[in-house]
Design brief:
Length: about 425
């Protein structure tokens, strides 16, 4: 496929064309030429979109899709289509399927299912067998099959010695350990952030301490073992400070924050709507502002949608009983544009790919064409009509968004929403 992208402003700090409005010729999956008023000498398709901006393809470091086992929530095929139309050229797939992605055959299964799609799928292998936290999974075999990291989705490893051994073991093949932080004993039966809102609503609270004490333990283990650790979806002000201090000490630690924790707070729980029941819970405005500052000062390396489809039978029920999770691919960019500068958003959705050993293809001549197309302007309200996922459990319904993702050009395919 040959295509000329017309009048596109490039947002890519690694590109010599950063902040310039140019034409881009893509041929045979590569960026062939970048310039102004490019001649169409070979009858290439031409793409013109309103206020078009482009960057290297966005990456989401935490996406759940359900398949295999929970196809009623989402399939790999539809999930990758949703990701593409939402501007994501690559996703890291969480292992929380049935069976859990904890061995070589399961990694191969999801990779084969993703063949031929514009959005690339990079599996995360479970750190422990069946994500039960008892025995280490087949990490080296999964790495050889294409797993980009190892972690048990939304589960903190109680066995500190097992995490220590994992951190030591993966250094033999430059592996990345994902260490979700939540002390289950401190969390107890909590369902919402412990604070004024939970007390007023009579909801059992989850204190900040449940996250922070686990982060402290995990950082001590990392300091002892060396290696690489990624702490996903942090949510408190103290967590940001702890990781900032660890980085200053030279520890090889990275972290992410979710779109919903950067935009929403526990004030949303006033309606007892289970769409706002997530892990970790929505926190206070003080925490939200600390996360924003953590993104701006570089403490937080990645922003993720933490896209987690949940079927209506397990989501639309009493708040205490509903499953945790929100979908987020479709609303991610528009929500982030309401709280962060454009260049910061693009940086946090692209440059962190290297953390997961995924190539960064800058917008330059001769590079693989891995491109996201978007418009940072315009306002809209997110409605059910905007949801492309099979599950509809979005925490952003009714939220004002800014800008929109047009789609992606990747793997030799143009996908527009």
């Amino acid at each position: 496929m040959n295509i000329i992208i017309r009048n596109a402003k490039i947002i890519d700090s690694n590109s010599s064309f950063h902040n310039q409005t140019v034409d881009v010729l893509v041929a045979d999956g590569f960026v062939k030429k970048i310039g102004t008023s490019l001649l169409n000498t070979d009858n290439s398709e031409e793409l013109k979109l309103e206020n078009l901006h482009i960057s290297q393809g966005w990456f989401d470091s935490s996406v759940s899709l359900g398949e295999p086992g929970f196809e009623d929530r989402e399939t790999i095929a539809n999930g990758l289509d949703v990701a593409a139309k939402s501007g994501f050229a690559a996703i890291a797939l969480q292992p929380n399927s049935l069976p859990v992605i904890d061995n070589q055959s399961q990694v191969n299964f999801v990779k084969n299912k993703a063949n031929g799609f514009a959005t690339q799928l990079f599996p995360i292998g479970a750190l422990t067998k069946e994500s039960e936290g008892k025995d280490m999974a087949e990490l080296f075999d999964m790495k050889n099959s294409g797993a980009v990291a190892f972690g048990d989705y939304a589960k903190s490893l109680d066995n500190a010695n097992l995490l220590k051994i994992a951190l030591q073991y993966v250094q033999d093949f430059d592996g990345l350990v994902i260490a979700f932080a939540q002390d289950d004993k401190i969390k107890g039966n909590g369902v919402a952030n412990e604070g004024i809102v939970s007390a007023r609503l009579g909801l059992k609270g989850i204190p900040d301490l449940a996250e922070e004490i686990q982060i402290v333990r995990n950082l001590f283990l990392l300091e002892y073992t060396g290696g690489k650790m990624h702490i996903p979806t942090i949510s408190t002000a103290k967590s940001v400070q702890l990781i900032k201090e660890a980085k200053a000490k030279g520890l090889n630690v990275t972290c992410s924050a979710t779109v919903h924790h950067l935009v929403l707070t526990d004030d949303k729980l006033e309606s007892f709507d289970s769409r706002y029941k997530v892990t970790p819970p929505l926190r206070t405005e003080i925490d939200r502002q600390a996360l924003i500052n953590g993104v701006l000062d570089g403490t937080i390396d990645l922003i993720t949608s933490d896209h987690n489809p949940i079927d209506i039978e397990h989501k639309k029920m009493e708040f205490d009983l509903a499953k945790n999770g929100t979908i987020g691919l479709e609303s991610a960019f528009g929500a982030l544009m309401t709280v962060l500068p454009l260049e910061t958003i693009i940086e946090k959705l692209t440059l962190g790919k290297s953390i997961f050993s995924i190539p960064n293809n800058s917008l330059a001549e001769g590079e693989i064409a891995n491109i996201t197309l978007f418009n940072p302007e315009g306002n809209s309200v997110f409605t059910k009509a905007n949801i492309l996922s099979k599950s509809k459990n979005s925490a952003f319904l009714g939220v004002n968004l800014k800008g929109k993702a047009y789609g992606i050009l990747n793997q030799g395919k143009l996908i527009l929403g």
